[in-house]
Fold this sequence. Notes:
Strand order of the largest sheet: 9-8-7-10-6-11-12-13-14-15-16
Number of domains: 3
Radius of gyration: 24 Å
CATH topology of the largest domain: UDP-N-acetylmuramoyl-L-alanine:D-glutamate ligase
Function: Catalyzes the addition of meso-diaminopimelic acid to the nucleotide precursor UDP-N-acetylmuramoyl-L-alanyl-D-glutamate (UMAG) in the biosynthesis of bacterial cell-wall peptidoglycan.
Keywords: ATP-binding, Cell cycle, Cell division, Cell shape, Cell wall biogenesis/degradation, Cytoplasm, Ligase, Magnesium, Nucleotide-binding, Peptidoglycan synthesis
Pfam family, one: Mur_ligase_M
Structural class: alpha/beta
Distance between the termini: 50 Å
Enzyme class: ligase
Domain Mur ligase central: 118-322
Strand content: 15-25%
Amino acid sequence: MNLDMQWNDLVQEVTHVGAQGDSTQPITGIEYDSRRVRAGSVFVAMKGGSTDGNKFAEKAIASGAAGILTDSSVTFDHLIVYHPEIPILEVEHGRRALAQVSAAYFGHPERSLAATGITGTNGKTTTAFLVESLLNSAARTSILIGTIEYHVAGEVRPSIHTTPESRDVFELLAEGVYRGATELVTEVSSHALDQGRVASIPFDVAVFTNLTRDHLDYHQTMEKYYAAKRLLFDGTVYPAPRVAVINAHDERARQLAAAARRAGAEVRTYGIGQGDWRAVDHKLTPGGAAFTLETPAGSAKVTSRLAGEVNILNLLAAVAAAHARGLTFDQLVTAIPTLQPVPGRFQPVDAGQTFTVIVDYAHTDDALRNLTGLARQMLGGSDGRVITVFGCGGDRDRTKRPKMGAAAGEGSDIVIATSDNPRSEDPLGILAEIEPALRATGKPYIVEPDRAAAIHLAVSKAKPHDIVLIAGKGHEKEQILADRTIPFDDAEVARAALAELGQH
Length: 504
């Protein structure tokens, strides 16, 4: 961090439309949460989705704030009158200003890092883990920011958000650079792109995995959802990446590739049997996959421990991105067989039972179809059944609930519909929106709102060769209810259910 930073230094770093006052008081921190303000902090008062930080400007001043950045002209005018002793900046975009001042305060760590950003509805987490693993295999020191966890030069930390607020990102980056990191790999959510949380981070490589229905509670339409994802590539708000890696199978691929090229990016497409980086002659095995990797850099037969076609795509995306970051083709081919599955992403729970139990994060209809389709591929010609446990989150896009019911029924032999994270909603109300489409598939199903009971029920119904899919929460370690949050781990609950059957 810049311990010598004063108000004038900050002003030079931030795009602003109004300014008042000056101060030679050293700045001791940047905060967007008024509860964290201490003497010498600069408070960034910005409008948010659920609250307006401008309401807390007075509280921040009372706590010793050395200055205020505000995205509200009303707050700016008020503070000029009632707090002429406090330096104030008015900015057009609060979150972008937060990124600018945070980057400066923490010493511009982004300038010492080559950043790879991964966006898309599904596959972000797995692809990010794989990119980081490939970079680490070539002795690169990295920072990973993602849904499951954060990595700071080898240290693993719990994840708070898929993409944190920029102030927290830059603090993490500064620590990573201090520890020798030269690479940043981060999932980039559509919310983060839309809100400006990744402003001031120049992405060297940007990856687009896919776009399927999700987050419409926030974006409202698929066009707006796509427009948010496109911001990582088109150079309109953020600098265009040097290299754009795009899934050739996605219906938006051609459109996105054109936007990236217009912005000056080199475009690499990937896919199974198509794209610049492609897998051909692929064979799925119980332990992963084998295929021929064909690329502009070379061709080789490879084996992977990651199961299913969806993970072949994730691997192709990661390989193309890592090559863009300077790994040679030979380094990539050597590393691929060593790559490990990601926690909560098609994660097996094995206690020696005669059937398969899989925990997966699939929480959209497209992801659920991929998951059940992969289970069918694994069954091959056996008489095994697919038993799927799933639910839909509360206070989220309600339009996907019937779609997920249909996807579960169409891909499974037995479905147990249950709770995910109901949040403030009635779990039975959520299930009532899932059930009609599920019933219409004609598959046998059970509605059990207690998720633990649903998992135990699925395991008890399984016969030899069956596959039990526990979908929706993946790596998550808690369940969010209306009045409390409780510890809950799908894999641990499944192990307990297996133990009841005598499997340890």
